[in-house]
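Late entry, adenosine-5'-triphosphate complex.
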Amino acid sequence: MDQPVAIDYRLLVDNLTTAILLVDGQLNVFYLNSSCESLFDISLLRASGQPVLNLLHMANDEFNTQEALLNTFNTGQPYTRREATIRVNFKDIHVDYTVSQINAEKSYHPLLLIELDQIDRMLKISKEENLIQQHQVARQLIRGVAHEIKNPLGGIRGATQLLARSLNDPQYEEFTDIIISEVDRLRNLADTMLGSRQLPSYELVNVHEPLERVRSLVTNQTKKKIKITRDYDLSLPDVLADRDQLIQVMLNISVNAVQAMTENKEFFIDHQPELILRTRIQRLVTINGVLKRSVVRIDIEDNGPGVPEEILESVFYPLVTGRAKGTGLGLSIAQNIMHQHGGMIECQSIPEKTIFSLYLPWEASHVAK
Ligand SMILES: Nc1ncnc2c1ncn2[C@@H]1O[C@H](COP(=O)(O)OP(=O)(O)OP(=O)(O)O)[C@@H](O)[C@H]1O
Ligand SMILES: [Mg+2]
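Prediction complete; structure with ligand written out below:
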């Protein structure tokens, strides 16, 4: 018979995809495995000894987690919760988890074992696919409408000019001028709705270059009233992208942030408006249904009042705006450009912390199409 193989159980536990958490009788963290470290974005060293309820921070928790944990601890009765929402770093994630008691050897105190399975990734992928589809349908609709609006405008403008000339009366000039300037405004709007007709021209770009351009534009525009903090990872690889389009994306998002901060001065009584530009490598991101091992992430963060809750889910749709003078096209155009680059934009927002994250793959698959 074969000799039993000696297994290093620590290694085994650290390679599980299930996140595992051990909790002591005071409901403090005793141990967590690697999956659990990445789920909660915290190291074992930092988490040890912390109240587990700080980690298992339930969003809208009607279920009393503390009571349930103590109950299992005292009675040994395990329990399972499905589709629980926990909040990690301002993000809601969904998990199924099971709590059971471990009757360890006599010398040890009993512990609680919590096994968590993140169901988010699947939820998120299907939600993203839906969003992308809906976004494409909406864009086509908008382009169709923009065409229809634009077609008669040339005729109206020409006829008004003829009318002005034949009336030749300063009394009516004011009215014909209004028609012409409103027609021009509509034409500009329709052009923006149609989007750029130029094909992207791809080249290798270090994302910090366009980001710095946007930073200096914003600095000049806001006359230094907004603090701009840079938090760059300078080791990022170059991406294959259209430099001008990247600038447009970053500018659309930064201008929104600046508007949110400058148009809501009453929000900044006790803190200073701040824009943070952050770059990182992000591992394991699903874009358009494909899991990417590593992508470039650019965060544009502000500490304004946040995206109004009623439009947060639809903020990338064309014509969705929370501002009286907004057209609601900036983010839709930005998202469209990012899709063409094989990337995407995500938004998370609460008061004092709004982050638009741009994800850009750095392998060239999108260019070959
Ligand atoms: N950083 C932010 N903070 C708060 N609200 C935001 C932020 N970014 C976007 N929004 C909200 O999202 C809406 C949509 O933004 P979007 O850029 O698409 O359109 P817009 O700014 O209204 O018009 P425009 O077409 O001129 O850009 C904004 O009107 C605003 O209400
Ligand atoms: Mg905008």
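The chain has ten helices and twelve strands. Will revisit in the morning.
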